[in-house]
Amino acid sequence: MNEYNVSDYGIFNNAVGTVDGLSKVLSTVKDEISTCSQQLGNESIFMGPISEQAVEGCTTASLRADSLSTNCSTIKSYLVETSTNYQSGDSKAQLKVLSTGANGELGTSTSSANFSGDTNQDKLYSYLSSQGFNNAAICGILANIESESGFSTTALGDGGTSYGICQWHEGRWDSLKDYCSENNLDSDSLEGQAQYLVSELKNSYPDVYETLQNVPNTAEGAYQAAYKWTTDFEIPEDKYSEGENRGDNAQTTYWEKYGSK
Predict the structure, then answer these.
(1) What are the Cα distances from residue 142, in Å, to 121, 221, 252, 255?
(2) Alpha-helical runs (H) found in 43-102
(3) Which of 1, 69, 206, 256 lies most in the core, judged by the most C-beta atoms within 10 Å?
(4) What pLDDT is stored for residue 175 in this prediction?
(5) Which regions of the chain are under pLDDT 70?
(6) Contact between 225 and 113 (Cβ < 8 Å)
């Protein structure tokens, strides 16, 4: 478990203060909108339908201010809870995230994404494990990512047309960026690329996904996972020869490191 220093968390208090300040501003705005609405209503005899439309606009603005105030309250509670969890040394605090509903309201949920570890390799192991892959399947994936990018999220290949840990090529690179943009993720980050990896696997490569979900959790299973990933997901030149090489790496180096975790 990571060690956290309470003195490092003053930024949380600053953030809470900022949210409190915004809440006060919104309260003042709502009062002013209410006053304005009343004044416009009093002028209805002179303004006619225009007054009604103006009052309706004030009502809409007031509802939006109410929604923002509610979101501020949610953000404040989230910051306080997250700060408390981190200060107590709870490494799972990072899994509690803010989420946005269909109408723009904020809520909190627990993310199933776990990126614990000191290196990109270890973080990927943690994440893939949290997504339900067994150790053999993970070893197969990691052996491929080592060959493709050396676990660098900013690796470029194929004359600058392939990118990231899996060397997504041209249209697949565009899809990575689109996915991350839609899900408020950074396409240059390990978190963004890893979550896209699983999404792409499930939605565009179901045969590979099914294989990885069913390989035996053994060294041989690690070989099978790496081979299938190479030939049907990465598809490099000499894919069958590469599949054998990466399969060997998966069932030796990676299985030795992660097989018994």
Answers:
(1) 7, 13, 12, 10
(2) 44-47, 49-87
(3) 69
(4) 95
(5) 1-10, 85-104, 108-113
(6) no
